[in-house]
Specification:
single chain, 130 residues, alpha+beta, Multidrug-efflux Transporter 1 Regulator Bmrr, Chain A, five-stranded antiparallel sheet, two-stranded antiparallel ribbon, 7 strands, globular
Length: 130
Amino acid sequence: MNELTAFFGRTFETVMTAAREQNVQLAGPPFALYHGMPTQTVDVEAGFPIAGDFHGTSDVVASALPETDAFEAMHQGSYDSLSTTYGAIQQRMEAEGLTPSDTMWEFYLSDPGTEPDPTKWLTRVVWPVA
């Protein structure tokens, strides 16, 4: 988890470069797909939605976000406080008698490189129902 920011920086740049080399257009903000709830370690994929066909490279594989029923919430603030948004989604699911999936993803709608104030960062959280 401590290396996640650096991982995202490297990964997003690598994916953008591979897409450019194949003349594939990015079709949305960067995202991270988490397999399991993050703890001290995390199993995560990172990339961008694309428009067109992308063929994997030695560094980048094509993947797709699952099509599923999910709850979504807009988180405003630093990434350190995302657990509050996840908690609210989980409470809502439980109130409706639903169980959260062990997979979830986030779309990063703000670029910390251009917006240094973390209180203004927006993250769309998507948490599927199991």
